[in-house]
Amino acid sequence: MKRHKYQYGGDPSQWGELFLPDVPDGGAHQGIVVVIHGGYWRPQYGAELGEPIATDLAAHGMTAWNLEYRRAGNGGGWPHTFLDVLAGLDKLRDVAAGHGLSLDRVVALGHSAGGHLAVWAAGRDKLAECGLPEVHGQMPSPQGAVHLTGVVSQSGLLNLAEAERLNLSNGAVSNLLGGPSSDHPLRLRYADPMTTLPLAVPVIAVHGAADDTVPLSQSESYVEAGTSAHMPVRLVTVPGDHYDLIDPKTAAYRTCRELVRSLLG
Description:
8-stranded mixed β-sheet, 8 strands, alpha/beta, about 260 residues, Rossmann fold
């Protein structure tokens, strides 16, 4: 396995690290997995959470892009966290070209807040409809856009309006948005993955049955709405808590890994 770190902006948190598996002579890479860490969008949690996952994916033959981004409290939050995720995705165009990688299959694996950002990014083409053209105008050029071909969400925050109503993690949603949605309704509309349903790419929402950090209803409500909208979406409930999903030693994580492999084809 080889590792290569790249900046996609000038801030210390604007980087991604590519984990390249050892491919036998004559073999081909299986596609790229974008690993997006969680932590309720707060700065005390970083891409070190995604490093064991990226290492494991590469050990199982998959190329991984472990993405860091600015969070609410270190230059991120509204709208910079969102812009960073898209810019970090789009950096893959240069990175892939430099390593002879194809962008035909790019699957995101996101945990908790990273699950939110992964599913949100999968709806990037529909964001112009969300009522915030001034923010949409800051987004990377569509010409260089890298589009996800599938998402595995690990206990993702997929229904932001409900997450705010439940006051998850002591106001994490309003902290991300720069204030309550009652003051910023268009920000919530723009940031909520529920807004861009239905997506044209498959989303698999994996959730730990014993998760007491992000309630199962976050995945259930998204999958229910997506199913009603006739998009390729399903819920997979696994044994374990919130963090079992990102521990390569657990069966819960191994389920996520195999679902990613299935989306890579």
